[in-house]
Design goal:
Elements (H helix, E strand, L loop, with lengths): L6 H15 L3 E9 L4 E5 L2 E3 L2 E3 L2 E5 L3 E9 L3
Antiparallel strand pairs: 1-6, 2-5, 3-4
């Protein structure tokens, strides 16, 4: 079972995903709230298509990341 990232980690993880794919910056995200008092992942790094270095915390500030759209702006 996988845990969702904490809200404050969503932007960082999305940027790391776009960077690793060579697709520019994050253009748009689709997220939704995880269940109340879910176990969230915090401080994760995205490398080789996997999350690593994650810590876990229980809280109501988790978001499920369902889509990241990357693009070169400008």
């Amino acid at each position: 079972t996988s845990s969702p990232p904490a809200v404050e980690d969503i932007n960082s993880l999305s940027s790391q995903i776009c960077l690793s794919l060579g697709c520019g910056d994050v253009y748009k995200l689709r997220t939704y709230d995880a269940e109340f008092n879910s176990t969230c992942l915090t401080g994760c790094l995205y490398r080789d298509s996997e999350l690593s270095n994650c810590s876990q915390t229980v809280g109501s500030h988790c978001k499920m990341l369902s889509e990241v759209i990357c693009g070169k702006i400008g």
